[in-house]
Amino acid sequence: MTVIEASATPPRRLAWQLAEVREIAVETPRVKSLLLHVPAWQGHLPGQHVDIRLTAEDGYQAQHSYSIASPPEDELLALTVELVDDGEVSPYLIDNVRAGDQFELRGPIGGYFVWTIATEGPLCLIAGGSGIAPLAAMLRHRARRKDRTPALLVYSSRTLEDIIYREELETMAQRDSNLRLVNTLTRKQPEGWTGYRRRIDKAMLAEVAFPPEQDPKIFICGPTPLVEDASRFLVELGHPFPTIKTERFGPTGGLAS
Amino acid sequence: MDSTPISRGFTSRRQELTSKNRTPPGQYVTADFPVLSAGPTPQTKVEDWTLALQLGGSLLRKWSWAEFEALPQTTIKTDIHCVTKWSKLDTTWRGVTFDDLLKAVGLAAPPAPYVMAHCDGGYSTNLPLADLVDGKGMIVTRYEDLPIPPAHGGPARLLVPHLYFWKSGKWVRRLRFMEEDEHGFWESLGYHNYGNPWKEQRYDGD
Amino acid sequence: MTEISSELFLDGNAAASLLQEIFVPEITSAQILCDACGFAGSVGSLRVYAASMGAVLRCTRCDGVLMRAAHTPHGRWLEMTGARHLRF
């Protein structure tokens, strides 16, 4: 694959393209990943997102943004969708979509919440629920490139079954001594669970996060309360505000459309 | 009609939630009360709150909270319609009608054809006076019998339910009468100047 | 009440789709200078309000409005009077 330069997002007009669903992967009871073929896809940077647009037969349209979960090294584009009960787009993507279906997509969008192996400094990722998607793109990119940048993922989920990409993340961490994976389960823990059992708090971050002197690049993605709390704690722990990049999901559970 | 690809099997779930006669075109009914703001929620205390009426360069009248609460109170139950497509039915509000406001200032008729509502936080919206008088508009201080929460516009907001809800400016503090119409916050950014939900006047050009 | 307030805004990249329809170079990594208080930051780090109606991008330091944008069926609107400049 071509070398990715973090600063070189080529300027282009956003245009709607047709994406075809090639595969569907069930991640958790409420989460699926759709693997898409997008002809003439020009590549993306880990952390960027796309807009999806659905059109009903009567012309009614609904739109939603989803982070790209796949790294630029992968051929198919992966979107990880969590079912939001009263949502407009996610119920369709979770319950109706089959392989072979097509819908409109445009992107990649967003150059701010982006990380590549060309960036210096340890990588500190903090995720809640489906906020893991853009951070997974970063970690998968790092793994594909066999990059050894020290990295940490602090991932908050309700239960063990809700951890998205659980096995993949565990395997990634087992194979890479420079990648630390810290799961916290906030609602229910399995027997014998030795990990954290609470929402991400300042004490937890003080224990696991890279100290400010190491100049980590920090990305936080998930529901608004988690993002607010985590970024506040990190600032209190001495991390400069500009090193903390956040992507908060709105009340609908995803990026605003 | 362009050739936008149809998404197989996609229908709007929200369109099922309409109440035929009560929902304007394109709206869906919600039991929630979504909060939409153009900025951070002002936290104005009632001790500091005043409402001013202005005409030209002069101040017609300024009420303190206590004075405003002493004006004739009216309670209404009405439906509200947001331009972002949600409608909420049977909402109950209490406050002062625009008619009573004008009476309190000794005006038998509106002194100008238009008004700009200026709100804490910098929000503004413009309206014809004809759409505020005859019971059509109010300044409300209670929602469902309780003080309006700051996120929903408290201590006081405009209520003009026959127009899209962005015209019911939250955190209203000043009403400036105008001889000529001027655009408020959303009206100057491509939204419709009038905003009749029954004619689906969402955007300038509709 | 603070909880409700903080649900009201999103991060600058939530406005990315809307703004990227107008700007050709990548907008969220552009640096913007607040005319009111002089604060400089990337567009992606700004607070975005009213995302369902368009985007109202406010300064992280003084809450002043830096950019306003809306996409309507009749055209796209952009107002940037609160920003002294944008640097790409």
Which features characterize this protein?
heterotrimer; B: 206 residues; mainly beta; Sulfite Oxidase, Chain A, domain 2; six-stranded mixed sheet; five-stranded mixed sheet; 11 strands; C: 88 residues; five-stranded antiparallel sheet; three-stranded antiparallel sheet; 2 helices; 8 strands
How would you describe what is shown here?
The complex is a heterotrimer of chains A (257), B (206) and C (88). Chain A has 257 residues and is an alpha/beta fold. Chain A has 2 domains: 17-109, Elongation Factor Tu (Ef-tu), domain 3 (Beta Barrel), CATH 2.40.30; 123-249, Rossmann fold. Chain A is 19% helix and 31% strand. Chain A has 5 helices and 11 strands; from the N terminus they run βββββαββαβαβαβαβ. Chain A has helices at residues 90-96, 132-144, 166-175, 202-208, 224-236; strands spanning 17-28, 31-37, 49-55, 61-67, 77-82, 102-109, 123-128, 151-157, 179-185, 217-223, 244-249. In chain A, the strands form 2 sheets. Chain A has a 6-stranded antiparallel beta sheet with strand order 4-3-6-1-2-5. Chain A starts with 16 loop residues before the first strand and ends in an 8-residue tail after the last strand. With 206 residues, chain B is mainly beta. Chain B has a single domain, classed as Oxidoreductase, molybdopterin-binding domain (Sulfite Oxidase, Chain A, domain 2, Alpha-Beta Complex), CATH 3.90.420. Helix content of chain B is 6%, strand content 31%. Chain B contains 2 helices and 11 strands. Chain B has helices at 65-69, 98-104; strands at 28-29, 50-55, 58-64, 74-81, 86-97, 114-119, 124-128, 138-143, 146-147, 157-159, 172-178. Chain C has one domain (2-87). Chain C is built from 2 helices and 8 strands. Chain C has a 5-stranded antiparallel beta sheet with strand order 1-4-5-6-7, with no helix packed on it. Chains in contact: A-B, A-C, B-C. The A-C interface holds A 9, 11-14, 49, 51, 65, 106, 109-114, 224-225, 228, 242, 245-248, 250-251, 255-257 and C 3, 6-7, 10-14, 16-17, 20-21, 24-29, 41-45, 48, 51-52.
